[in-house]
Amino acid sequence: MPEIVITRGGGYVDHIRAYKVYIDDDQRGSIRCNEIQRFSVPEGPHKVRLRIDWCTSPELSIDVGSDDVHLACGSNVNPFLALFYLFMPHKWVWLRET
Protein backbone atom coordinates (compact mmCIF):
# COMPACT_ATOMS: atom_id res chain seq x y z
CA MET A 1 0.00 0.00 0.00
CA PRO A 2 1.42 3.44 -0.87
CA GLU A 3 2.22 5.97 1.85
CA ILE A 4 2.04 9.68 2.41
CA VAL A 5 5.43 10.60 3.87
CA ILE A 6 5.58 13.92 5.75
CA THR A 7 8.87 15.55 6.77
CA ARG A 8 9.06 18.39 9.28
CA GLY A 9 12.29 20.30 9.73
CA GLY A 10 13.37 22.38 12.68
CA GLY A 11 12.33 25.91 13.47
CA TYR A 12 11.87 28.34 16.29
CA VAL A 13 8.10 28.71 16.31
CA ASP A 14 6.18 25.61 17.44
CA HIS A 15 9.48 23.81 18.09
CA ILE A 16 8.29 21.84 21.11
CA ARG A 17 4.75 21.24 19.83
CA ALA A 18 3.36 18.66 17.44
CA TYR A 19 1.19 19.29 14.40
CA LYS A 20 -1.84 17.01 14.11
CA VAL A 21 -2.06 15.29 10.73
CA TYR A 22 -5.47 15.02 9.06
CA ILE A 23 -5.96 12.88 5.97
CA ASP A 24 -9.43 13.03 4.42
CA ASP A 25 -10.70 14.84 7.57
CA ASP A 26 -9.58 12.00 9.89
CA GLN A 27 -6.82 12.64 12.42
CA ARG A 28 -4.18 10.05 11.59
CA GLY A 29 -1.37 11.07 13.92
CA SER A 30 1.02 13.91 14.64
CA ILE A 31 4.44 15.14 13.64
CA ARG A 32 7.07 16.93 15.74
CA CYS A 33 10.12 18.97 14.75
CA ASN A 34 12.79 17.04 12.86
CA GLU A 35 10.53 14.02 12.38
CA ILE A 36 9.38 11.98 9.41
CA GLN A 37 5.98 10.29 9.63
CA ARG A 38 4.47 7.75 7.24
CA PHE A 39 0.77 7.13 6.69
CA SER A 40 -0.52 4.22 4.61
CA VAL A 41 -3.38 5.20 2.30
CA PRO A 42 -5.18 3.54 -0.61
CA GLU A 43 -4.44 4.76 -4.11
CA GLY A 44 -6.55 7.68 -5.30
CA PRO A 45 -7.25 11.30 -4.35
CA HIS A 46 -6.70 12.47 -0.77
CA LYS A 47 -6.79 15.73 1.16
CA VAL A 48 -4.09 16.48 3.72
CA ARG A 49 -4.11 19.23 6.36
CA LEU A 50 -2.04 19.97 9.47
CA ARG A 51 -3.39 21.59 12.61
CA ILE A 52 -2.04 23.12 15.80
CA ASP A 53 -4.66 24.48 18.19
CA TRP A 54 -7.03 26.59 16.04
CA CYS A 55 -4.38 27.23 13.37
CA THR A 56 -4.01 25.08 10.26
CA SER A 57 -2.26 24.67 6.97
CA PRO A 58 -4.20 25.15 3.76
CA GLU A 59 -5.73 21.85 2.66
CA LEU A 60 -3.54 20.08 0.11
CA SER A 61 -5.18 17.84 -2.50
CA ILE A 62 -2.96 15.03 -3.73
CA ASP A 63 -3.39 12.03 -5.98
CA VAL A 64 -1.66 8.93 -4.63
CA GLY A 65 -0.59 6.34 -7.18
CA SER A 66 1.46 3.21 -6.68
CA ASP A 67 4.43 5.27 -5.39
CA ASP A 68 4.72 7.14 -2.09
CA VAL A 69 3.89 10.85 -1.99
CA HIS A 70 6.41 13.02 -0.13
CA LEU A 71 5.32 16.19 1.65
CA ALA A 72 7.20 18.76 3.73
CA CYS A 73 5.81 21.12 6.36
CA GLY A 74 6.78 23.88 8.74
CA SER A 75 5.64 27.12 10.32
CA ASN A 76 5.14 30.29 8.28
CA VAL A 77 5.41 32.36 11.44
CA ASN A 78 8.47 34.11 12.75
CA PRO A 79 8.43 35.47 16.32
CA PHE A 80 8.12 39.09 15.18
CA LEU A 81 5.02 38.49 13.03
CA ALA A 82 3.16 36.00 15.23
CA LEU A 83 0.36 38.46 16.05
CA PHE A 84 -0.22 39.07 12.34
CA TYR A 85 -0.76 35.35 11.71
CA LEU A 86 -3.31 35.11 14.52
CA PHE A 87 -5.66 36.88 12.08
CA MET A 88 -4.83 34.34 9.34
CA PRO A 89 -4.94 31.03 11.25
CA HIS A 90 -5.34 28.98 8.05
CA LYS A 91 -1.82 30.03 6.97
CA TRP A 92 0.07 29.37 10.21
CA VAL A 93 1.54 26.13 8.84
CA TRP A 94 2.82 25.52 5.31
CA LEU A 95 2.45 22.16 3.61
CA ARG A 96 3.68 21.27 0.12
CA GLU A 97 4.62 18.35 -2.07
CA THR A 98 8.34 17.72 -2.54
Describe the model:
The protein has 98 residues and is mostly beta strands. The protein has one domain: Immunoglobulin-like, CATH 2.60.40. Helix content is 4%, strand content 52%. It is built from one helix and nine strands, in the order ββββββββαβ. It has one helix spanning 82-85, and strands at residues 3-8, 19-23, 26-31, 35-40, 44-52, 55-56, 60-64, 69-75, 93-97. The strands form two sheets. Strands 2, 3, 5, 6 and 7 form a five-stranded antiparallel sheet that branches. The radius of gyration is 13 Å and the shape is elongated. The two termini are 20 Å apart. 20% of the residues are buried.
Residue share in helix: under 10%
Mean pLDDT: 91
Order of helices and strands: EEEEEEEEHE
Please state roughly what percent of the residues sit in beta strands, choosing from under 5%, 5-15%, 15-25%, 25-35%, 35-45% or over 45%: over 45%
Shape, principal axes of CA atoms: elongated
Short description:
The chain is 4% helix and 52% strand. It is mainly beta and 98 residues long. Strands 2, 3, 5, 6 and 7 form a five-stranded antiparallel beta sheet that branches. A four-stranded mixed beta sheet has the order 4-1-8-9, with no helix packed on it.
Question: Which properties best describe this structure?
Answer:
mainly beta; 4-stranded mixed β-sheet; 5-stranded antiparallel β-sheet; 4% helix; 1 helix; 98 residues; Immunoglobulin-like; elongated
